[in-house]
Write a structure and sequence with these properties.
By secondary structure, the protein is of the alpha+beta class. The chain has eight helices and eight strands. It is 43% helix and 23% strand. Strand 5 and strand 6 form a beta hairpin. The chain is globular and about 65 Å long.
Length: 261
């Protein structure tokens, strides 16, 4: 299903939930942790979340990029015309980044991505979603975040940065996240920034707390229990590095023979 545990008109019955949303009528499998940041009340408070050297190095990265390559721009996109333009670029950047990896995501093919493109355009009309982009002076997309909104929370659903070795030393992903967090604080309407599934290092630079995420299996019938144990085995394979890599290699061969979709 779309958007993991985020509930909206395009994901009315999420197949994932957090601890607080569990009930006694269904089965649940612990899946992963989702880091989050309680947003500071203002930029001055935000600066206190890291030492001076951290901010110095981060600002220095932007200055070096501008000196070496050129202008670096950050923008929040919500209007339909710009969304359509940048979402097409996002599809290209995502697939360029992961072209040699097997990922079980609809974003690997145009038809699958189109559903998420249309959903974002629709959600943005009601302030339920936006994309954040980092691009150069030639409007080349360098990094993006596909974000969802729900009341006072921003969800960091999907994110990719250009993998060209030319850009590696500038930490463009970190620059994007920094600007995105600044935007959320300055908007003065969000209280929480949810980095969503996975405790990757770049998230833990900002997030100091996390929620447990569970996969929900509807009901407690015989079929429910069968599906429950089947999913537990699937999750075991997913988090067993040796078995996962072997399985991914097999699936990559299948993908190359029969296509992504």
């Amino acid at each position: 299903k779309m958007y993991d545990y985020v509930k909206n008109k395009h994901n009315k019955s999420p197949n994932m939930v957090k601890e607080k949303d569990k009930d006694d009528s269904n089965l649940y499998i612990k899946f992963i942790n989702a880091p989050y940041m309680i947003l500071p009340k203002d930029i001055e408070e935000f600066k206190k979340t890291h030492k001076t050297k951290f901010w110095y190095n981060l600002n220095r990265l932007e200055k070096i990029f501008r000196k070496d390559i050129g202008e670096l721009n950050f923008k929040i996109i919500k209007n339909e015309e710009s969304l359509n333009k940048y979402l097409d670029k996002i599809f290209v950047l995502f697939n360029e980044k992961w072209k040699n990896e097997y990922l079980s995501t609809p974003w690997k093919c145009k038809e699958g991505f189109e559903k998420y493109k249309k959903a974002m355009v629709d959600l943005a009309k009601n302030d339920e979603g936006f994309i954040a982009v980092l691009y150069d002076e030639n409007n080349k997309l360098l990094s993006y975040a596909y974000c969802l909104e729900d009341d006072d929370t921003v969800y960091f659903y999907q994110y990719t940065t250009d993998s060209n070795p030319l850009y590696r030393k500038y930490s463009l992903g970190k620059i994007l996240v920094h600007n995105l967090l600044k935007y959320c604080i300055e908007m003065n309407k969000y209280e929480k920034f949810d980095f969503m599934n996975g405790e990757q290092g770049y998230k833990l630079e900002w997030a100091k707390q996390s929620d447990e995420v569970y996969i929900k299996v509807n009901g407690k019938s015989f079929k429910s229990y069968f599906r429950y144990y089947l999913l537990k085995f699937k999750i075991y394979l997913q988090f067993n590095n040796l078995l996962r890599d072997k399985l991914k290699n097999i699936l990559k061969i299948k993908e190359s023979m029969f296509g992504k979709c």
